[in-house]
Every structure is written in C-alpha cells, then in structure tokens.
Amino acid sequence: MKLLVTVLVTLIPLLPSAWGSEASRTCIFQTLSKPDHEFCRGGLEVIYPEVGDVSCSYIPKCHGFRQKLSGEWGQPRVRYPHAKKSKKYVLVMVDPDSPNRANPQHRFWRHWLVTDILGSDLKVGKIRGKVLTNYSRPKPPRYSGYHRYQFRLYRQPPHEAIALSTEDQESLGTWNLKDFVEDFDLGHPVASTQFLTKSYKD
Predict the structure, then answer these.
(1) Better-scored residue on pLDDT, 14 or 54
(2) Integer Cα distance of 96 and 26 in angstroms
(3) Are the C-beta atoms of 200 and 70 separated by less than 8 Å?
(4) Which residue has the higher pLDDT, 26 or 3?
C-alpha cells in the first residue's frame, strides 16, 4: 500500500502537464460566420488528407495544415451525396479574393475546372471528367489576409460541350465566371461551399 501511494504521489505532478500537452495538440476548425457561411449550401463536401471535410470553415495553422494545403496536398475529394447518378456536372474552384479581399483586381482566379463529371462518381467523391483547368493548390500571398476558396457545382445541360476560350486558357486570373456560366447555360449552382485560409508564413 505504501508503495502504491508513493507511485501515485510521484505521478500526480506529471498529469497536468500531460493533459496540457494533449490540449496543445488539439486543432480547432472554426466555422465561417455570416455572410461567408451563407455561401455554403447543398451539402457539398471538400475532403483533404488529415483534416477531412473543410467545407465552410477556416483552415487552422496548427499541425502545419495551411502549409500542407499550399505545398503538399493534391486535389481534394469532392463529394455530393445528392447527385443524380445519370446526370453530368461541372465543378468550378475559384479564388474571388486575388490578390486580396479588399482589392480583388484578379477576381476570379481559376484553381480547378472539370466538366462531364458523372453523378455516380460525385456521390462517392471521385472527380473524373474532362479537366479544363488542372487543380492548383491554394497559395495566398503573404500579408494578403484570408482568401475564400469557393467550390461551385453546376448541373451540366445534356449534350452541351463546354470549353474555355483561347484567352481564358492562357490566363487563370481575371476570369469572367458569370459569362462562362451564361455561355453554357449552367444556371445557378446546385451546391456550393468554401473554406478560408491565408499564407502559412503570416
């Protein structure tokens, strides 16, 4: 009994520090506030390694998540549970805050554009289709604050062949998303979401 008491007395001072280190490893994903939260609708999921679904949240700096997002992780899994299996969809990923949210001269910066995505693939998070713009990792410049990275999912009209103009192919920035949507009669997104992040060096 005396030995047991001695062991407990020895361990007690160590316990708070153990709990503290566990707390320091906790990484909190803060949900977006209005009006940014209102952009998220339809149940679209954006899934990256280690963190899972980042829809409608800030990417925290802890565990190097912002750095991994900008330099390591490839394209996310994008899942839309409500997709119609036999329909086709168009996925757009853009940054409306280039070079910064206060002065977005290069809105919209196109990060990813895929057409002809089958609903059956979308339901399980596979983005397979015609890639018009390869995935480009989010890399906000230093001191430019938070950038929104928006995902918009459109139902693709039947038999509609979608393409970028020669001018748009040559540049990712200052893309006229509104004209693109109107040119191909995409209508309103069936689902949309976004996450916010900033330079990991800030």
Answers:
(1) 54
(2) 31
(3) yes
(4) 26
